[in-house]
UniProtKB/TrEMBL annotation:
Keywords: Decarboxylase, Lyase, Pyrimidine biosynthesis. Pfam families: OMPdecase (PF00215). It comes from the Bacteria. This is Orotidine-5'-phosphate decarboxylase. It catalyses: orotidine 5'-phosphate + H(+) = UMP + CO2. Pathway: Pyrimidine metabolism; UMP biosynthesis via de novo pathway; UMP from orotate: step 2/2. The keyword Oxidoreductase does not apply. Its EC number is 4.1.1.23. InterPro entries: Aldolase_TIM, OMPdecase_AS, OMPdecase_type-2, OMPdeCOase_dom, RibuloseP-bd_barrel. It comes from Hymenobacter algoricola.
Length: 253
């Protein structure tokens, strides 16, 4: 978390560069290097999605090389959406942190606290899925509870409780539902949100920033993946996004 906060301050950016590599094996390593090198200056974090690496032969090797290419002062969040009993989660955590070298992960909280706690190592960041960006998420996450609120609020409460106990726990909240961003921000006023859904999924950047920024103008990591991967000039697109985001928030002190 320290590394993330320092990076967002020094580089004045809340942009998370998603790495979802597609294309044939021969081209992909070169394109990954290109996207990383062109966007690093604008990146608050990088978010490789595990599925796009595991679907390739030698994908773990490619993932490790990708993480090694990312400058050491920029946090790497491995988007694996892990979530299993503690014994198994511990092995996922070893994979993410000790084999891949990630600084953080995404975790699915459906199985409860013990699916999350093994990832909460000192110095690591864990983003717990609360309200995801995919439209059909509403069929589960927007289920209303008899005691009031929604199922996604329970995920946020678990995330908040674990943050108080362990530190370093944030939430995943999609930019496709700005209302949920605002509601979850009021439930979790201090936590960092990893926010996918801007770009290819059509999330509303301005509404998300209005609803989710903390009073100090930070607290959101705005992710975009395909638009950067597909861009002729990934660096130029990243710069524009950072400018757009910074115009809509108070500049960090
Ligand atoms: O709620 C979620 C959680 C994770 N993702 C992941 O983020 C990127 C989004 O890619 P785009 O190309 O910018 O749409 C991708 O890796 C997803 O698996 C998400 O979209 N929503």
């Amino acid at each position: 978390m320290e590394k993330l906060i320092q990076r967002t301050h020094l580089a004045q950016t809340l942009l998370c560069v998603g790495l979802d590599p597609i294309g044939d094996d021969a081209q992909v390593a070169r394109r990954l290097a290109e996207v990383i090198d062109q966007t690093a200056e604008y990146a608050a974090a990088f978010k490789p999605n595990l599925a796009f690496f595991l679907s390739r032969e030698n994908g773990v090797q490619l993932l490790r090389e990708t993480v090694r290419r990312i400058p050491g002062d920029i946090p790497v969040i491995l988007d694996g959406k892990f979530g299993d009993i503690a014994n198994t989660a511990d092995h996922y955590a070893r994979f993410a942190y000790d084999i891949v070298g990630a600084d953080g992960v995404t975790v699915n909280p459906y199985m409860g606290d013990d699916a999350i706690v093994p990832f909460a190592r000192p110095g690591k960041i864990v983003f717990v899925l609360a309200k995801t960006s995919n439209k059909p998420a509403h069929s589960l996450q927007d289920v209303a509870l008899t005691r009031g609120g929604y199922l996604s609020d329970c995920a946020a409460q678990v995330g908040r409780k674990l943050d108080e106990q362990h530190g370093g726990i944030g939430l995943v909240v999609g930019a496709t539902d700005a209302e949920a961003v605002g509601r979850l921000r009021s439930l979790s006023p201090d936590q960092w949100f990893l926010v996918p859904g801007v770009g290819a999924q059509g999330g509303d950047l301005a509404a998300t920033l209005r609803a989710g920024l903390r009073a100090d103008g930070s607290g959101l990591l705005i992710n975009t993946s395909r638009v950067l991967w597909q861009a002729a000039e990934a660096g130029a697109v990243a710069r524009q996004l950072v400018e757009q985001i910074n115009q809509l928030r108070p500049v960090l002190a």
